[in-house]
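Example 3.2
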Amino acid sequence: MVKILGIESSCDDTSAAVICGRTLLSNVIASQKVHEKYGGVIPELASRVHQQNIIPVVDTALKEANIAKSDLDAIACTIGPGLMGSLLVGVSFAKGLAASLDIPLIEVNHLQGHVLSHFLEERDKSKVFPSLPFLCLLVSGGHTQIIVVKDYLDFEITGGTIDDAAGEAFDKCAKVMGLPYPGGPVIDSLAKAGNPDAFSFAKPQVADLNYSFSGLKTSFLYFLQKKVAANPDFIEENKADLCASIQATIINILMDKLMKAVSKTGIKDVAIAGGVSANSGLGDRLRRDGEKYGWNVFVPERKFTTDNAAMIAITGYFKYQKSLFAALDAVPLVRMPDTKSFG
């Protein structure tokens, strides 16, 4: 069976994975803690750390998969979107290795990888896969989209954010509360002890299946400024309730549009993907709505929600089946072309 090495380096995680067919043999991730003290990813630092990590990460992935470089049939790498310096490290390494082994190079859209992670198989694990076509809510720090997945490589974007992404809203709201970076997981943790109905925030009214989160962030900031002016300890005294309330608001915004998409398309297989799909509140809400409305729901395992090379490898697998190979002069893209489809 075809063996593919996947390489992911779009932001601050250096990752390599090996698959045989659709079965995952290894998935190694080296995260960068250096950015935490800055409250966000510093692109120059990220690219330097990728250079340090790429060789040991790939070497470890091959060893864990128990295969040699010569066993590989192709190399798939993230071509974008992402940070240019970070992407260049992964793409350059993938090009060099593919050329030295005389095997195909496959370029992968990072966002498509998140969606197709639902089709990864794992050894000694049974898994139910979405039926085609299915709906996927892709939610991450930089993107929020509702996608109709017609086939493995045929996606139609039916809605997206017109400004900020849901993940950015989580992180920015966490920052104004003085919570550490990355703020999304911290909000999720604190929200478990809070009352989601303690505070209400305005939900933006946006046409069709599109989203907007910039107004919510601004209203949350002004709300806190007003409360803190009256009581300097307001945030500390209400931290759990604030987290629960802002999380519930963001989830309601996401799910309202997803429900409209289900109604509009008639598709009942519904999935989430991307970094924010690790949010326990979002996963729980999707499962509840699935039971209520008769959807077949697919929530990824946490290890496949963050940036990882397994999702790049499985996307490479589907592209390999169609001989969709890249030239060795392929150029990384900070932003992918602005279209209503990709794949």
